[in-house]
Amino acid sequence: MGYLVDPDNWEWLITARNARFILEGFLVNVQIALIAMVFSLILGLGLALLRLSRARAVSTATGLWIDLWRNLPLILVILYLAIALPEPWRDAYESAAPGFLPDVLQTGRVFAALLALVLYNSAVLAEIMRAGIQSLDRGQGEAAAALGMSYAQRMRLVILPQGLRRMVPATISQLITLNKDTTLVSIIGIQEVMRHGRILTGNNFFGGVQAPLLQVLIFIGALFIVVNLLLSRLSRRLEIRERERTGTTPEPVSGVEDQLAVARVD
Amino acid sequence: MSALFDVLTENIDEFGGGLWVTLRLVGGAFVIAIVVGTFVAALRIAPSAWLRRLGGIYVETFRNIPLLVLLTLSYAGLRRAGVEIGTWTAGIASLGLYTAAYVAEVLRSGVFAVSKGQIEASLSLGFSYAQTLRRIVLPQAFRTVIPPLGSITIAMIKNSAIVGASIIALGDLLKNARIVQSDTFKTEESFIWAAAGYLLLTVAATIAFRFLERRLAISR
Lengths: 266, 220
What we know:
The structure holds two protein chains of two kinds. Chain A has twelve helices and no strands. Chain A has helices at 2-5, 11-14, 18-51, 56-71, 74-84, 87-96, 108-134, 138-146, 151-166, 168-181, 193-201, 213-246. Chain B has one domain (2-216): MetI-like fold (Orthogonal Bundle), CATH 1.10.3720.10. Chain B is flat, with a radius of gyration of 21 Å. The interface between A and B is large, with 41 and 48 residues.
């Protein structure tokens, strides 16, 4: 315990640009999580709609696709794609990546990581969205159809606004999981917070103070805890606001995300 | 097709040994997750506000920290600090304590799912508080949480692959498959067999939990 709180072991944090260096690494994680989340939401919605298609073959094939990616360990997919992603794909990403992204995020290696994260999370989100849509009363869709709305109108105006609202807590839960999962990309050598931490504890440290690994990792862990707690607070806020605004208690879907990361308000 | 099976038969020691390591890792972590998870859930519903807060801190800490940070911290971090900790201990403890936070949350919500009327009825029938908890609340709470416990277990099986990929580098299924891959350059085949191994474990867990659920289902 003395070792843990000994001020000498925390000196690295206020030395040189060490704290800033860790935060810069953490920012890469956050950016990877956000980029992966945006693409996963888009792809996930597409998959959910295909999964609910009335054409049996389409729905079964989509179901198999979703189950495959949902049930593989994410790290296995990341490691596989890091080895097996064809060179032309990497080059295409490198030339297509927008210039405002930091340099770390413009390498072909990041494409493998992003692709793995999107394949995995879009499958999980598709299940969340499907559960949200299917939790609606059948009468909603039938009533909309009786009013003469087309399939697209029913989805856009009646089903999705209600169904997607129910999936907000589960989606934020998944975003928290995704945020944590971004540390896995350090294993394929992307310079994010874990790698930055290891650099500070190695021999090429800055500022003359070698950082103790335990303290660095506690600091990194604390960053994740803070950001993820803020996210789950946001989720609770949204739920309360929705309840006040509509005067009803929406029934959030849960249990289909990878791991329940947002506490249900009991 | 036969090339695919050749990779398996020629490296059966690596794949079989890896699967066995993964299985022991998951089994050990499962025991820790259930024991610690139950204890933390008990804290979370304790009559004392301080105990509840303590349970809350455990859950929020272990649920919001990346597993990779825990694995690195418990092995390399502690070693640098002078605490000699073995690879197995670090791997099983990290995976188990991480999963325990999820188990605790699920158990807590299971207890809350038992309606208040049942507890009041039981108390008014003259059961003590401990008897009510043991005979009325917990048996029902346990049944309602079987499906979520199943998904937590499946997530844990998948998360166990991180142990071998981390600095701990236990020779689990994924680690050994990567060794086969670097020896033979049969990338697709190696990863397909690793994936098949994990699917085998998750499907087995799904079936086991479905069986438990059916066995213990209460007709309402």
